[in-house]
Every structure is written in structure tokens, then in C-alpha cells.
Design brief:
With about 140 residues, the chain is an alpha+beta fold. The chain has four helices and seven strands, in the order E-E-H-H-E-H-H-E-E-E-E. The protein has one domain: Alpha-Beta Barrel (ADP-ribosylation fold), CATH 3.20.170. The chain starts with 7 loop residues before the first strand and ends in a 7-residue tail after the last strand.
Amino acid sequence: MMNKHDNIFTTNKVIKFAYHITESKNVEEILRNGLVPKIGKLSLIINEPVEAIYLFPELKDAKYAMSDWMNEVYQSESKRLVEGEVSLTLLKINMKGYPFKFIDSDEFYLDREFIVYQPILSKDIQVTITDLTMASFKI
């Protein structure tokens, strides 16, 4: 049984597109099968309790995550998990028809990340930037 976030809230905000960051090695499968709600490697590392797809509503939010908490996680875990720096890909998601809920983690981060509980079809996903590293991610 899935656990639930204690800090989920709904909003009337309309989001046409969202962004998802994934390891580049996952892109081929995602473009073939879509995104599936699950607790992936990064979710395990940071103890996210829900099988979901985690998305950013704007590019600036994805950039913030990569320069802040995501960078810290990959830097601290990279020696244990992989050799060298992880290559990442930024995906753009067409959000039409996908209900979502924001994560209210703290006042500063409010509205910067949200979750989708249902699969996102491959037809609604496009690759935006490939072979990102934490150091090279600039928007």
C-alpha cells in the first residue's frame, strides 16, 4: 500500500507544460513506454514516500532543483551509486488531461514541484535537453 505525503495540496493553477529530470539512460524506455509512477532511485535516496511522477512547473524550478537539492544528492551519492557524474535529460511534458497536486515542502519551495499519480503517455513527452550534468545545466 502506498504511503501519502502529508503536505499535498490542490490548486486552481493551470499548467500547460511541466518538466521532469531523469537519468539519460532512462530516456529510451520513457519515450517508448511513457512515465510511470514509482519510487525511483532518486526518490529512494531522499525518502519520497509515494509512487508518483515528480515534475517542475517551470524551467526555472528545474534549474533551481538541479543547482540546489538535486545537486547535493547526486554529488553525495555519486561515488556510491555510479562512477563519475550522472548524465541527465530534461523532459518537457504536455500536462493536458493529467491531474496534479503540488508539494508544499516549505514556504520558499511552495509551487516549485508537483506530483502526478497516473502514467504519462509517451506521446505527451519530448526531450528538451540531453546529457546534462549538474555543472552544465544553464537555462
